[in-house]
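Colleagues,

Please find the record for the two-part complex below.
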Amino acid sequence: MSKYYVNKFLFQVDRNPDYLKRYAEDPANFVATWEQSIGPRLNEVEASTVHSLSEAERKALVEHDFVALFEMGAHFFLNLTLFIGMYDEPFMKENGPLAFQREFAKKVGHWTGKDYPTVET
Amino acid sequence: MAELVATLASTHHPFYLRATTMPPEQQIPQAPEWKRKIEAYRETLSKAKPDILVMIGSDHFHQIFLDNCPQFLIGKAERYDATFWNEEREFGIPKYVLEGDIEMSRFMHRNLMDQGFDFAFSNELKIDHSIICPIITVRPDNDLPVVPIYTNIFAPPLPSPKRFYDLGCAIRKAIEAFPSNKRVACIGTGHLSLELGGPRQFMETGPDPVFDQQALEWFRSGNIDAVLAEVTHESMAQSGNATHGFLNFILMMGVSGRQPADYVDNLDLFHTMEAYVTWYPKAAAALEERAA
């Protein structure tokens, strides 16, 4: 398990329009590509051999499962902003401004009043 | 020596520009009041007639990530690009280029190291909405050079509230030791209670309105001792998972020098309370007396 590597995925996809589009349209394929050739890159020359996704992390990313990611301690800002990038517009068209953000809150509502999973890596 | 002519601490709401410039029929009901309050707040900076802005913000995983994560970082560059693609996408914030003041950056860096703050630095810093939002709100002409400083309010473990306060005191000393006749304003942004990516996000108010009112009272009284006695990382988490942005307000109370704020305004918006705070310098003797 690597909370850091999940965050690296969210960070890299959120900031890159091409990755974001591919992750929105075909998450299983994109997560596989990312694990193979994008995630390990340290720069144009160097690659890391250190991190990998667990089965549960891979599944959560493939299923766009922000509740599972929250519960694994993925960073709250990355976990929110990436999924806003994919779901804000369709939810807004259906149910008006902030509809996705409120749906997100509802889906993690069972954590109200509890200590959230730590985002420390 | 340079003169610290104003200290501003405010929230940085990334939707201000979009909310107040979209067609009036699409604006939220609070938009006109929000704009009036921002324009009034802007005046508190304009009347201090600054020449340079020392800007305190916090990168939101735009340039800085968990592979290399400084607690405190100073920009040392001739210019700074600003606004990342995902900020344009989500908030509609345009790109900017800010002039730097590399001489003052170099001086501040050395001076802060001498005061026991071993800053990381960047010669190629692209800044994000924590610093661009206050440019949009209080200096929209973007006509002054800046010295950007980033703090970590985001990736635990974070420095203590006391450390943020002490850094604010050190930043004030560094500004006042800068060999120049320039007028310097110090502007920092953060949050009151805030929840992002959790069950209390985007409610009708911020996640902890009681904390928000208390924070405004602390600014009015300048009671940093009460802040440091009551605010901990754990208490901030209880008030909302992103409330640690309040650490930058604590830092700004250090810059201001233990005094009641001269200007405190606020605005209740959906999901958060906005705060706009300004201090003007008092005679050094009076500050020493208050500290004693």
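Helices of chain A lie at 3-14, 17-25, 27-38, 55-62, 66-72, 76-95, 99-107.

Comments are welcome before we finalize the supplementary table.
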